[in-house]
Fold this protein.
Amino acid sequence: MTRKAFVIGHPINHSRSPLIHGAWLAEHAIDGSYTAIDVAPADLPDFFGRLRSGEFTGGNVTIPHKEAVFALCDSIDPLATTIGAVNTLVVADGQVHGSNTDYLGFLGNLDANAPGWDRADRPAIVLGAGGAARAVLVALQSRGIAVHLLNRTRATAEALARQIGGAITAGALDDFNDLAPGAGLVVNTTAVGMHGSRFENLDLARLAGDALVTDIVYVPLQTPLLADAQARGLATVDGLGMLLHQAVPGFAAWFGIRPTVTPMLRMAIEATLEP
Ligand code: NAP
């Protein structure tokens, strides 16, 4: 029987997930499909009825449904609760299980493109305390890495650090220059970098020469932060890999094969990022 998966959102036509999963379905000659389905918020409960009836093996959830599906799932992965968002659904025996694979995408991207990045016994600096920062904090905690969480609005960083718990200290973006010499990793999770915007007061010269700089913004692929880091000879990893790697666990659960993020897949998705 053809196994069917989906991404639901509203709107949904911007999603690159059908391209990613479509490429893997073709590569592995799987009798399956992955389609983008526009589901308005009011129609979400009905859609879950279709899920429980066995029409789909599972799928992805994107904006604006990532929080609303909590109330509709039969079970939720505890880390998705900590992150505060569900992006992956798996249906088994008429029950819908929700999880979040963004933190695995973040880890998979760094593991593939900067192997050994988590071996240095130094804290990371995470810039930003919005939705995406939660997944990054959970990811770094899973590898035992302490974090300085710096945000434009300091109070938001303080609240998030309290909520996630563990070895996270909160501060403002202005604290970067003092903390930079001791950091092994810098992660941008803010919207800064999109549309050519840049951080004004971060002095990357204060970072150690072996520090790694990564950005989860992937439009543009080369953000000003990454360009500045490269100009200083620092290693960098861009954000597209996080998008590609977060798709791996879902595909494996729905179609039974763990796919690989290949350079060819990356090039195909990269081509869709052109202005
Ligand atoms: P969000 O919840 O709206 O959070 C935005 C964050 O950016 C907040 O910390 C905010 O600080 C900060 N910020 C916004 N404008 C700023 C400015 N001019 N200067 C300094 N800080 C600023 O957004 P999100 O969902 O976390 O997403 C953030 C970015 O991550 C987006 O670009 C998104 O595309 C990207 N993302 C990428 C992936 C991937 O797979 N690569 C996955 C998820 C998200 P305040 O608290 O002070 O407002």
Notes: The longest strand covers residues 3-9. Residues 102, 105, 128-133, 151-153, 156, 189-192, 194, 216-218, 239, 242-243, 246 surround NAP (CB under 6 Å). Residues 115 and 126 are 19 Å apart (CA to CA).
